[in-house]
Amino acid sequence: MTTANPTVGPYKRVARSLGTGAPVYVLLAVLLVALAATDPGFYEPDRFLAFVKRAAPLVILAAGQYLVIVCGEFDLSVGAIVTAGVVVAAELYGSYPDASWAVVTGGLLLAGALTGLVSGLITTKLRVPSFITTLGMMLILEGAVFFWTGGSPHGSLPEEFRRLGRGTAGGWLPWAVLACLVAGAAAVFLMRSDFGRTLIATGDSERTAALAGVRVHRVRVIAFVLSGVAAALAAVLVGGFSGVSAQAGRGYEFEAITAVVLGGVALGGGRGSVVAAMAGAFSLQALFTLLNLQGVSGALESTVQGVIVIAAVGLGAADFSRLRRRRTHLSGGTPS
Amino acid sequence: MTGTAVAPPTVAKSAPPRRTRLADPAVGVWLAAAAVTAAGWIVVAARGGDFLTLANVVGILQNCVALGLVAVGQTAVILTGSLDLSVAYLISLGTLVAATTMQDGGVVTAVLAVLALSAAVGLANGLVVTGLKVNAFIATLGTAFILRGWIEDNYTGPAGKVPASFQHLGYDRMGPVPVSLFLLAAVAAALWFVTRRTRFGHHLYATGGDEHAARLSGVRTRRTVVAAHVLCSLCVGAAALFLAARLGAGAPWAGTEARYDLESIAAVVLGGTALAGGRGGVAGTLGGVLVLAVLDSVFNQLGVDPFFKNVVRGVVIIAAVALYARRGTGRTT
């Protein structure tokens, strides 16, 4: 509940939220410096914006995943939602080539919200651990998408729809960066609102929160819904950026969770800031870029990624003695 | 039942010892397996097929072996409140190491090499989780990435060749029963004995039930978690050896294609083991594996689209776990 104290002044609150995520800001800074040292042209506006554009889907996913994790749950279905979103959009355009992009995008966001709603209701009302709920949801979504398309999605996305993922506003600012900024600002605003405080309180101690009058079920369902919307938005960006593929979202769920944990957010809930979670996503993307520039072969890339993630989280954990106690609560999702 | 005797007071308070064995998820899941079999038999028979042929039953059991071995190992880890997401890549690497070693060296060397590799990976997982205090989810995910990189860097496709002498493990039968089933039975029985009848087993339950209380009562919780990870990885190594015998070569996709990481966790939870640790056991896990295998077989007989199978599988997993929770076996929050 440390970050949820309304009497603390804004500066202290910023300092505190920095505090929980301090290692990730250091990591991000180190990676950004290393990027500059490796490639002097990295900070030319175009290239840097392109970097942010590539990071945007992961950052948005991390923000959504943060909401779910901070209230003590998991969302393993976000990767499948991204895949499903891309494939569904392509199939829709296959049947209705003239559909307006706004309608399709809106429909996808709504479908993402609906998926999150179902996951949330199953987790809270049926008391299924969210690890299992969202794992099942992932199997269902991937199975359904492949079943529907017979294994390979057809149809393609029109330029108009892909603009959000690959186009630029005013000739220089990528729409994806704008979407990322808006989503990030919305997440920060949300976490500063009463809802954000109840969300953290729920993750910190469900019972205490419930006794204090928080409707913990509703709070958690909303977190899942928002995570679903974030995943659908990421799907629009991914579809626009890299096109249609049945593998579009594979692995995103683990990357998003990794990003959130890199940001010092405790699995099991109750602690960590959304800004740090998004910084974790940027760090991951910076790491991928750096490995690419260093000419590390694609194969070894994941080895280095694994080592760095473990090391970073280990270093972060060293500062927080509470994490040790948290560990026992981790996997169930529902703090039982 | 001796296992729950050490369980912390919070559990004892909310769940007094149950006499009704039916409410025990481990019993429930075996009943569910029987029910699914019966339903499958009826559905297949209605289509003019015959489900309960000896060949089919044996086939179902054989399909349990790989997932069963992994899930049994996963049970040990989950009982302590940890989990292992690196199993899929460890299987892939295990088959590759087994097949390439067997090609030049002997079968014995290969088996020892795979088991040593598994033990080392398990040890690393356990030490990172307990020593560096990295969350098990992230620690084993990191291990998975490391293994994946190693595999992709060193192997471009199937590698090595398993000699005919070792392929007996995958294909031989004693009477109608596949030899591999004895492997699963032996590993499962050993792990059942360890978890239910030894002091270490009680420590597993105690650590998963409430790590803090266990430590205060003198359990070396860190050592317990590390040992559980090593045990799990050894089981995974056994699965890798079996799959190598079955495939005749090492394959980089052997573990990932079937998603052994998530499927094994699903089977463990289907079997009534609490993801938070401290409750459940090997017997339930085997039931969970059986349910998945029977479902698979029914779908195959009915010629259901393989992609649609995943949809049903997801629904079944969620529904089954929801049933347990409804029955109040889950610890109330």
Set out the fold topology.
The complex is a heterodimer of chains A (336) and B (333).
Chain A: H1 10-38, H2 45-70, H3 78-95, H4 101-125, H5 130-149, H6 159-166, E1 168-169, E2 173-174, H7 175-192, H8 194-204, H9 206-211, H10 216-242, H11 252-262, H12 274-293, H13 298-319, H14 322-327
Antiparallel strand pairs in A: 1-2
Helix pairs in contact in A: 1-12, 2-7, 2-10, 2-11, 2-12, 3-4, 3-5, 3-10, 4-5, 4-10, 6-10, 8-10, 11-12, 12-13
Chain B: H1 2-5, H2 9-14, H3 25-46, H4 54-79, H5 87-104, H6 107-130, H7 136-154, H8 164-171, E1 173-174, E2 177-178, H9 179-197, H10 199-209, H11 211-216, H12 221-247, H13 260-270, H14 282-302, H15 306-326
Antiparallel strand pairs in B: 1-2
Helix pairs in contact in B: 3-14, 4-9, 4-10, 4-12, 4-13, 4-14, 5-6, 5-7, 5-12, 6-7, 6-12, 8-12, 9-10, 10-12, 13-14
Explained architecture:
Chain A starts with 9 loop residues before the first helix and ends in a 9-residue tail after the last helix. In chain A, strand 1 (168-169) and strand 2 form a beta hairpin. Chain A is globular, with a radius of gyration of 19 Å. With 336 residues, chain A is mainly alpha-helical. The model of chain A is unreliable at 1-5 and 328-336 (pLDDT under 50). In chain A, helix 1 packs parallel to helix 12. In chain A, strands 1-2 form a two-stranded antiparallel ribbon. Chain A has helices at residues 10-38, 45-70, 78-95, 101-125, 130-149, 159-166, 175-192, 194-204, 206-211, 216-242, 252-262, 274-293, 298-319, 322-327; strands spanning 168-169, 173-174. The longest helix of chain B has 27 residues, at 221-247. In chain B, strands 1-2 form a two-stranded antiparallel ribbon. Chain B has helices at residues 2-5, 9-14, 25-46, 54-79, 87-104, 107-130, 136-154, 164-171, 179-197, 199-209, 211-216, 221-247, 260-270, 282-302, 306-326; strands at residues 173-174, 177-178. The model of chain B is unreliable at 1-15 and 329-333 (pLDDT under 50). By secondary structure, chain B is mainly alpha-helical. The two termini of chain B are 23 Å apart. In chain B, helix 4 (54-79) packs parallel to helix 9 (179-197), helix 4 (54-79) packs antiparallel against helix 14 and helix 6 packs antiparallel against helix 7 (136-154). At the A-B interface, helix 5, helix 11, helix 13 and helix 14 of A face helix 7, helix 13 and helix 15 of B.
